[in-house]
Structures are given as structure tokens and as C-alpha cells.
Amino acid sequence: MAKTIMYAVASADGYVARTDGEIGPLFDWYGSGDVAWEWNGAQMRTAKASQDFIEAAYPTDIGALVVGRFVFDQTNGWGGQAVAGDHVFVVTHEAPTNWEFAGTAPFTFVTDGVESAVAQAREVAGDRIVDVAAGDVGGQALRLGLIDHVVMNVVPVVFGEGRPFFGRAAGAVALAGPALVAHGHGVTHLLYDVPRSGGRLGH
After folding, report:
1. What Gene3D superfamilies does this protein map onto (predicted)?
2. 33: burial class by Cβ within 10 Å (0-12, 13-18, 19+)?
């Protein structure tokens, strides 16, 4: 079965974006280093430590991506392209009716919850990785015990408020590790394992 990784870049106070969805300098480190390399079709220029960390955290290709409706709307579904993997699963209450790429883009709008979206993504991914975007969807998947690893790329900026890395759902979760730590240019990388129980703690 595909490993499921919850991944995102976050501010030092734990936000993946400002309240309005703007990301500020969170992704500046993607192009601030001295090593040019390619990751899942994206051209990167990072510190060697960042390259080594990401390649260790993602030992196989990404097969499918799971995101929420907010990310989809903010990016307009990346112009109908699967930004990572072969297929994108969007968790939403209602599928869009007038998206210009509907019917041609490798996107599925999942209206019956996060668990269903992850299951469908795993089927498409096969032995490859399922990448679940951090935020509300990732936080729900984590609390449902559907995440194997959590990857946080922490940038030294404080937003003060915004969209939390682990979402706003209730429920405490214990992580193991960090199993990997690396320091790049303007970013600290952390990889946590999630215990097989899902790490759920009693209230």
C-alpha cells in the first residue's frame, strides 16, 4: 500500500498561509540555494541539505495528491494540471459546476469525506506515495489515522494568524521523532513518523 505523507511549508508559528491564503515568503527557499535539481517535475534550487532531506523523505515518486477545496480555489486547480502525481483528489462539499478544465483534467472531486479521498488516492498511487496537503484536510486525515509521515518545512517568519498546519479539527495526536532533521537555506526540515495507532490520544 502507498505511504501517505502530510507535507507543507509552514511559518515558525505553524501556519501554511495567511488567513487570506497568501503565502508570503514561505516558498522562497525553493530557489535560494546553490544546488539545481528536479523534484516531481519542479525545478528546484536549494541547499544540498534540502535536496537530501526531500529525497530521503520521498524515496519513491508521488502517485496522487489530496487537497481541500480552499487550495483548489486558490490555485484554480493549477490550470488543470496535476502538480504532483498522476491525479488530484479534491475534498469538497460540492464539486464546481463551471470549472473550465472539468472533464479533461486528472481531478476527482470527492464529496463523501477525507477517508474516501485518501482511499481513492491510494488506489491510483499503487506503491507510490500519496501526498496529503497540510491544513484542514491533512489534519482530518491525521486524526483519522490515515497518515504515515508528517513533513514540516519550517520557515523563520511569524504570521501571527493564518491557516494552521494541522487544521482546526479537535483531537490530540502523538507523533514519533523527528526521524529526520535538516537545515537548509532559510528553512528547517522535520520528518515525523505517525504511530500505527494513528497517534490518537485520550481527551
Report:
1. Dihydrofolate Reductase, subunit A (3.40.430.10)
2. buried
User: Whole-structure pTM over 0.70, yes or no?
Assistant: yes
Residue 132, phi-psi category: left (phi > 0), alpha (psi -120 to 50), beta (remainder): beta
What pLDDT does 200 receive?
52
User: 40's torsion region: left (phi>0), alpha (psi -120 to 50) or beta?
Assistant: left
Determine the Cα–Cα distance for residues 147 and 169; give it in Å rounded to an integer: 15
pLDDT in tens, 167-198: 998 788 999 999 999 999 999 999 999 997 55
Q: Which residues contact 148 (CB under 8 A, 6 or more apart)?
A: 3, 4, 5, 193, 194
DSSP secondary-structure letter at 88?
A: E
* Domain chopping of the chain, boundaries: 4-193
Q: How far apart are CA 121 and CA 149, in angstroms?
A: 16
CATH number of 4-193: 3.40.430.10
